[in-house]
Design brief:
By secondary structure, the protein is mainly beta. The chain has a single domain, classed as Jelly Rolls (Sandwich), CATH 2.60.120.560. 13% of the residues lie in helices and 42% in strands. It contains two helices and 15 strands. It is globular and about 40 Å long.
Length: 230
């Protein structure tokens, strides 16, 4: 009888130990986009359209539309994010919002906050302040030299790491932005939404095709605890 009780106790302790070990494992990578549908995503701010084709999200400019975002329904605090982007036209400026705030209710609201710049030029990968009237880290003052511009019509890999006030980006595994938010910025944008952008296009910019494609969107959550407000 004692032997049976010992076996049961040992099994119970082993089970608890295994559960405890599992609980301290780093959060795994997971896909934000299933490659087939836009389930769990919603359009904000404008009238650009998004569809899925060949495992990628395709965002297409709409006439007379403001900048438009496609956002996961979740919010994120500290995380590592990877994705690939392809611009079909050099005239279309785009970007990926991180830790951004959704404000207002017109067309689902508009995003304000840090944006990973994506364009046909040396500013790609640096952090623009969407809705903030300027750069959060000016490409001209960055410590890392600009990475070679995107090749229009080809896929380019991006990585972003946001932990506390520290935001870093890489393009094709080469470091680009290295930004420390000040206390006010961290309080406002220490947690928020991710958004895939289709920028508004001026009529003089021609007929396009004004499209941007996103795929392989993966995230690893480091912490979901939002920063305290001052």
């Amino acid at each position: 009888m004692l032997r049976i009780l010992f076996v049961i106790l040992a099994a119970t302790l082993f089970s608890h130990a295994a559960d405890s070990a599992a609980s301290v494992e780093p959060n795994p990578w997971r896909s934000l986009f299933d490659g087939t549908t836009l389930t769990g995503w919603s359009v904000k701010s404008g009238n650009a359209t998004y569809r899925v084709e060949d495992g990628a999200i395709i965002g297409t400019y709409a006439n007379n539309s403001t900048t438009t975002f496609l956002c996961p329904d979740e919010t994120f605090t500290d995380f590592e994010l990877t994705f690939e982007v392809r611009l079909d036209n050099a005239e279309l400026n785009t970007g990926v919002q991180i830790r951004s705030v959704l404000a207002g209710d017109k067309l689902g609201g508009s995003l304000t906050g840090p944006q990973i710049e994506i364009a046909d030029g040396g500013a790609t990968g640096f952090i623009f302040g969407q809705g903030l009237k300027g750069w959060m880290q000016d490409p001209k003052s960055g410590t890392n030299p600009p990475v070679a511009p995107l090749v229009i019509g080809e896929w380019t890999s991006f990585r972003a790491l946001a932990v506390g006030p520290h935001i870093q980006t890489w393009i094709r595994d080469k470091p680009v932005a290295d930004l420390i938010l000040n206390a006010e910025q961290q309080a406002a944008y220490g947690s928020g939404r991710i958004g895939l952008q289709v920028h508004g296009v001026k009529p003089k910019q021609g007929l396009g095709p004004h499209q941007v494609r996103f795929r392989n969107i993966q995230i690893r959550v480091i912490s979901d605890k939002a920063p305290s407000k001052p």
